[in-house]
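Q: I'm building a small set of examples for a reading group on sequence design. Run inverse folding on the following structure and report the sequence directly after it, with nothing in between.
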């Protein structure tokens, strides 16, 4: 397994009116390429992203590491810690971070 499913809903602040629920599913832990499988190609893709070679992944896919605030930081660089997380995921280690973070 290694993925999560969420129901997301927007609540308008002015009148507290809520949108319908939207089901969202994350990718499998360590599946950086998003192809539904977790293998050495995911690690390789993150290495390429760190090296900034052509064909690198978008940051939202390559960043497996959480920041100190327990939320993905779009400004944080992809680094060796993300490669290490991809190797851990490939080895079958569980997702090491906590659950949901608080929205700013
Ligand atoms: Ca993959």
């Amino acid at each position: 397994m290694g993925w999560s499913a969420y129901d997301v809903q927007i609540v308008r602040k002015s009148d507290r009116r809520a949108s319908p629920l939207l089901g969202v599913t994350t990718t499998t832990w360590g599946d950086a390429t998003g192809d539904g499988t977790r293998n050495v190609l995911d690690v390789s893709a993150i290495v390429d992203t760190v090296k900034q070679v052509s064909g690198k992944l978008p940051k939202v896919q390559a960043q497996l590491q959480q920041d100190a605030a327990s939320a993905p930081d779009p400004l944080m660089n992809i680094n060796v810690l993300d490669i290490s997380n991809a190797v851990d995921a490939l080895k079958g280690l569980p997702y090491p971070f906590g659950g949901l973070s608080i929205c700013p």
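The chain has a mean pLDDT of 85.
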